Structure formats: structure tokens, C-alpha cells
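Message: I would value a second opinion on how I read folds in C-alpha cell form. Give me a protein, with the fold worked out from its sequence. Write it directly below this note and I will take it from there.
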Amino acid sequence: MARALTEDQLLDRVAGLFAQHGFDHTSLKDLADAVGLSKAGLLHHYPSKEALFEAARDVGRTHSRELFEQVGRVPPGPARDRRAVELLVDFALDRPGLVALETRAISRLGAEDLDAHRLDALSQHVLAVFGVEPDTADTERLVRAIGVLSALAVLSLAANHTGEKTAWRPHIIATCLDALGHRDPSHPEA
């Protein structure tokens, strides 16, 4: 493993490349270059590009299960929504590559996307945190939850790009809570 990167950091970087180029258009050389390893060095740790992709997805799934367990102890309602948003924002700010990968499906709605079957599990887990089933009759709540995911993705990626994660965090949380219909009274613009 590259000495400068932890396994989570390595998987976050490769997830970002998969998000940017798609699975089929991301080469092992590009992945190895992004993490500072040779192709052979990368293949020593991960036997194939598919194994690397699945390892990145597993990190996302593990974190989403942990989120669901933490949030699941709080009864549905504004307090649960706030806790879920805070945990999601912290995850998104720390792992921009994984967020970009998992939200790629949102940005490509309606497009012919060969990766679509690989990209929906985490999003469905996150929707469940907000008490939403994809085929729900509660259209407003579904739209609001998708709005949270969309705002979270765009804003956390922008915060990472600008290097202003700490300064942006409270504003991202307030925006996500607003999307859910909960005005954040602690936010200065409330």
C-alpha cells in the first residue's frame, strides 16, 4: 500500500476516478498513478480493477450501515433527520471520492450508464435513513431526500475543491435540513 495513503484514502481516490470516468473508462494505470503505486503494486493489493471497485464500494456500504445503526436509535422526526444529515455531511467532507462515485447515478439520471447497476445500493441505504422507500407514495419526502443527497454531493465536493470544509460544514448542514423542510434555528441565516 502506498505509504502516504491509508487504505481508506486510497479507496477514496480510486472511487473519485471511477466517478469521473466510469468503470469501463478508468484504466489500472490511471488508478495506480492516482495512488502513487505501480500497476503491479496496485494489483498486489487488489487482484483486479473489479476488486478495487468493490473494495471502494464496500467502504461506502460499511459506513452507510454504521450511519443507519446510529441514526436508527433515534425515533423518526426532525432530531433523527438532523443526526443523519450531520453524519452524512461529515462522511461526505472526509471522502469526496466515494461521495462522487455513489452520487454519479443521480447526475446521470436518464443516461445510458453501464455503471448504474453498481451504484444504487448506498443511495438506497441513505434514503432508508430518512424513512423513504424508492417506490413510496410520499412523493414530497422522496423529493426532499433526493434533494438532500444532491445538495450534499455538490456542496461537499465544492467544499473539498475550495479547501473550506470546516467553514462550509454548518452551511451544508443547514441547506440539507432546509431541503428536508426543517429550518435550522442555529444557522445565522435562519
